[in-house]
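Researcher: Quick test of sequence recovery. Tokens follow.
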């Protein structure tokens, strides 16, 4: 085996460590809750059954959305975004960047690509040899271009993007709920152990830790969830929140926003019955998005940009 290949395999295996860690925590929390709390500590049968039913519903939804986020392959740009053979040959032979840009500009005219790089160039990925659709970015960890890329998440060892963003939000939502249910139901036993009202058994250690770990995870996950819900409402990806997308007529942080209702529908779909299940229901194909500025006349675009404190500058055409 070549050393570079061995190194790559090693890196790939290491990428799974955070996922393994999360799975071990879930496994231990299951044992601590079901066996140590429900079987050994709770004296009342009705309470035990109620807790177990609610706990298992949350756990199933949490694991289901977590696994969907991990295993859904991030969608890549379709063949339509590759250069046609003739242009590709010209592009590869050409060494001058400005002539390469001219070739890309000619091809992009037939594609629904309205964003540009910060320098005003047509976004092209040299590794994947493809014109990047709007909101698409190259992930160096996944070694591919990912449609509507949000970020690469080490906790799921996958890119969060167009194909799994809804699953990711649900994963955060159900993970918070799972932790909240544990905290709420364990609280009274946690206090009883603390006040020494229950016998000193090995369950004590598990229940004390279960409360602390669930509370800690709840606080961190709920903050991340709130941030992503805000991004959904604004129709921005994490990348766009840090750097406003640049359109053919200028940068605009709200360029993809279509109003609260339509922004939410873009991620969760327009049928409420699918919103809370990790099944794909996002709208669109991930390649093209409705943008506020490029489909309207320049005067209206200008007034929108002025509201944002910017002027319409035709600096790319
Ligand atoms: Zn790429
Ligand atoms: Zn990635």
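Model:
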């Amino acid at each position: 085996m070549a050393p570079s290949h061995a190194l790559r395999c090693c890196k790939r295996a290491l990428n799974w460590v955070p996922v393994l860690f999360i799975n071990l925590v879930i496994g231990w929390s299951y044992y601590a809750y079901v066996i140590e709390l429900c079987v050994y500590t709770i004296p009342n049968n009705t309470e035990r059954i109620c807790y177990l039913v609610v706990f298992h519903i949350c756990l199933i939804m949490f694991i289901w959305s977590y696994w969907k986020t991990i295993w859904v392959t991030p969608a890549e740009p379709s063949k339509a975004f590759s250069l046609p053979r003739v242009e590709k040959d010209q592009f590869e032979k050409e060494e001058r960047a400005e002539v390469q840009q001219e070739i890309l500009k000619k091809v992009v005219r037939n594609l629904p690509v309205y964003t540009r790089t910060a320098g005003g160039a047509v976004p092209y990925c040299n590794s994947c040899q493809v014109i990047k659709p709007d909101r698409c970015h190259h992930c160096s960890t996944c070694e591919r271009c990912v449609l509507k890329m949000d970020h690469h998440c080490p906790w799921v060892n996958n890119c969060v993007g167009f194909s799994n963003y809804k699953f990711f939000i649900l994963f955060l939502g159900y993970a918070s709920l799972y932790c909240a249910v544990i905290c709420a139901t364990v609280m009274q036993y946690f206090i009883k152990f603390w006040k020494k009202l229950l016998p000193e058994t090995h369950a004590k250690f598990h229940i004390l830790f279960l409360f602390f770990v669930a509370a800690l995870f709840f606080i961190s996950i709920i903050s991340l969830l709130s941030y992503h819900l805000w991004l959904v409402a604004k129709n921005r990806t994490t990348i766009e929140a840090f750097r406003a997308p640049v359109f053919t007529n200028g940068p605009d942080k709200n360029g993809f926003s279509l109003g609260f209702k339509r922004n939410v529908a873009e991620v969760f779909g327009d049928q409420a019955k699918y919103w809370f299940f990790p099944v794909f229901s996002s709208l669109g194909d991930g390649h093209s998005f409705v943008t506020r500025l490029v489909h309207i006349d320049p005067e209206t675009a200008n007034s929108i940009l002025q509201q944002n404190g910017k002027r319409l500058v035709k600096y790319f055409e």
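The chain is about 55% helix and 5% strand.
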